[in-house]
Amino acid sequence: MTGFDTRRAAKLAQQPEERRWLVEDLWSSQAVGVIGGEPKCCKSFLALDIAVAVASSTPCLRHFAVCSPGPVLLFAAEDALHIVRERLEGIAAVAGADFDHLDVHVITAPTVRLDLDGHRRQLRATVARLRPRLVVLDPFVRLHRCDENAASEVAPMLAYLRELQRTFDAGVLLVHHARKAGHARAGQALRGSSEIHAWGDSNLYLQRKSDLLRLTVEHRAAAAIQPLSLELSADDDGAVALRIIEDQQRLEAPQPASPLERVESALAQASEPLSMRALRVACRMRTATVSDAVSKLKREGRVVDHDGGFRLP
User: Average pLDDT of the chain?
Assistant: First the structure.
């Protein structure tokens, strides 16, 4: 019987420094890993921001350079295709990327199952055809019908994704849910088997702190950067994307406790009536949340209509 091939350690290939990152400080070159966090922590927005950055060679979060740009393959299991387009288009606008030529390829099939041999073969064939630099699968819970707590059921799916990465030199990014905070390390809060945390070469974790998000980075073979504070906000044209908050006073400033208080605070600081869109930007809330708050405030006589917008009485 022939044994395994071996090579002396000093003869192993070295990786040039410029090729050690896909997205500098955020995602290692050809890494598999997870974006984890509780529901409503903007995990999908972060995954899409990375996708746009890699596909367009623009800095992720307008800060982290892309070292090895190329095509991205995306499957978004929980969002309608028009929502996926809207989000990608908005992020591309904020990033200054050409959306019409954005090299993101979206799987339009209704389901992709990592526990089905037929779907595995289809995904492998798609990766072989497109040769993406990064594969984004969002979220893991919609990609199988296995028991996530059973390592024997989770490990084969993760091994399949690792095999894709090694065969096609493609990074693989899984979006995955986490349990509520309370763990010493963010990765320990990931739902399911510990195999998921251990599998990742680069893992990103999001936690909500009031209306801000805390991003923690973890790498298998590189030092991690300090945690960052992010927020989801709209620009003047209504394009929605995550952005890094660097103003320490902004980070430490007390935030109004409720949507109603935030709307009233924004109107109190405004020198003229604010439209619904302007309120959404000022309050950093979703349109539906702002609309509900305005409606309640109007019923209570705390806000009135004025010149196509709203003001305090």
Answer: 90
Four-CA torsion 151, 152, 157, 159, nearest 10 degrees: 90
Closest CA to 31 of 41, 43, 23: 23
Are 174 and 277 in the same domain?
no
**Residue 212, pLDDT above cutoff 60:** yes
Does 141 lie in the same domain as 97? yes
For position 18, what pLDDT does the model report?
47
- Other CB atoms within a 10 A radius of the CB of residue 192 amount to 21
Q: How many distinct structural domains can be found in the chain?
A: 2
My answer on whether 300 and 266 are in the same domain is yes
pLDDT tens-digit map of 17-52: 545 899 999 999 999 999 999 988 999 999 999 999
- List the domain range (segments joined by +) for residue 284: 256-311
**In the numeric block, which tokens belong to residue 194?**
């510990």
Of 201, 223, 302, 213, residue with least CA distance to 261: 302
- Return phi, psi of residue 244, to 5°: -80, 135
Read off the pLDDT of residues 175-185 as tens digits, 9 standing for 90 and up: 999 876 555 46
The CATH number for 294's domain is: 1.10.10.10
Residue after which a domain boundary falls, among 220, 248, 276: 248
Q: Name the E strands within 16-138.
A: 21-23, 27-28, 32-37, 72-76, 104-106, 134-138
Predicted pLDDT at 156: 97
Res 196 pLDDT > 90? yes
Answer left, alpha or beta for residue 206, where phi above 0 means left and psi between -120 and 50 means alpha: beta
* Neighbouring C-beta atoms of residue 300, cutoff 10 Å: 9
